Amino acid sequence: MRVVALIPDCLEQPAGGLGEQARHLMANMQDCEFEVIGTNAQAASHKGNVEYRPLSMLPLACTQAEALALNLDMQAAYAAELIGAQKPDLIHAFDWTTYTAGIYAARRWRVPLVCTMQLSLRLMIEQRVVVVPDQFASVAELNIAMETRGMANADRMIFVSQDYRRHHPYVEDERARVIYNGIDFSAWSSAEPAPLPGSRPFKLVYIGRFDRMKNVAAIIGAKLPESVDLIFIGSDRGGSTGLYDAVKDRAEADAQVHMVGPKYGPEKLSLLKAADAVVMPSLHEPFGIVALEAMASRSLLLTSFAGGMAEFVPSDIGIPCGVSAESISAAIDGAVRLSPAERARRLDGGEAVARSLDWPVLTEQVRAVYHQVIHN
């Protein structure tokens, strides 16, 4: 089976959960040949069953609507890269920002189209996670129209949580599938802890994109007990430069706050294994792969239970932290004060959840979707 995959991320050192998802799915589907078109954060390569080609995007002078304008330009860039692709058995568009290119390529080759809904722009705007200035409303409407058209034209729509599926009821049940993200549990269970910065005994970690939906600003505003070091792990890719700079400023001004930059592969796993707790006060979360990583690391999880996280993080395992600086502060204080027995119970329960969402199990669900659309 040959699959052309369109991803607005990369497979090596990805910016977010989308790249992690694609990388692990492809690694566990060795019977498939993948031609991947992704961002230029990764150079062209051909490893095993995956050929990777980066987008070649021209510089674009933009105003405040830069992200929305780049989404339109990106569709054209994907379409241009597809010109040289070999005809596949199916196309998998991993995000709405790739749907339009996927639709036209599927029509040209007369092959099935599978789309995954990773993030819904419509939903984020409705929930005020993304705020669009009035003068750019028409650009946002065009982006939303492309998102909706992709769902209407997909032979199968994959949602990463039941929560996201519920918010898109107009996709018929026969075309909709809910497939969670997963984790390479064997890699996490065999990783050894590595030292985290700071001299305080309790290590609290934020890892991920510095984006409004992740509620990084509230973490920065939280009050830390004297026993806590707060460590930020992540890059300035895929998020807000302003938030990234705000974290760096806080780290420079506060001896309890540390910025270690982006970490990938075994180094990332070892740092998370050393964390006492991971904080995820997200405002919007289609799934929340970092929550899985925290539980697989045997770290306490401070969570807002936003969106898809509430489906797989048990309420008696995750520690509710809300979305305000004050509620996050209270949750941190509560985590520090947990009894050893209660801490062990939460860590054991979280590890069991992570083990149940191992990538090989979830890969079989995606493979089943591929076979269904091809044979239909």
Key terms:
about 40% helix; Rossmann fold; 14 strands; glycosyltransferase activity; alpha/beta; Glyco_trans_1; about 375 residues; six-stranded parallel beta sheet; single chain
Task: Summarize it.
This protein has 376 residues and is an alpha/beta fold.
Query: Which fold name corresponds to the CATH topology of the largest domain?
Result: Rossmann fold
Mean pLDDT: 94
Number of domains: 2
Query: What is the structural class?
Result: alpha/beta
Low-confidence stretches: none
Task: Report on the architecture of this protein.
The chain has 2 domains: 2-182 and 358-375, Glycogen Phosphorylase B (Rossmann fold), CATH 3.40.50.2000; 185-356, 3-Layer(aba) Sandwich (Rossmann fold). It is of the alpha/beta class and 376 residues long. The protein contains 15 helices and 14 strands. Helix 2 (66-82) runs parallel beside helix 3. The protein has helices at residues 17-27, 66-82, 99-109, 121-126, 137-153, 162-166, 185-190, 216-220, 241-253, 265-273, 289-296, 309-312, 325-336, 340-356, 359-375, and strands spanning 2-6, 33-38, 45-47, 50-54, 90-93, 113-117, 156-159, 176-178, 202-207, 228-233, 257-261, 277-280, 300-303, 319-320. The two termini are 15 Å apart. The longest helix is centred in the first third of the chain and has 17 residues, at 66-82. The strands form 2 sheets. The protein has an 8-stranded mixed beta sheet with strand order 3-4-2-1-5-6-7-8, with helices on both faces. The protein has a 6-stranded parallel beta sheet with strand order 11-10-9-12-13-14. Residues 16-182 form the Glycosyltransferase subfamily 4-like N-terminal domain.
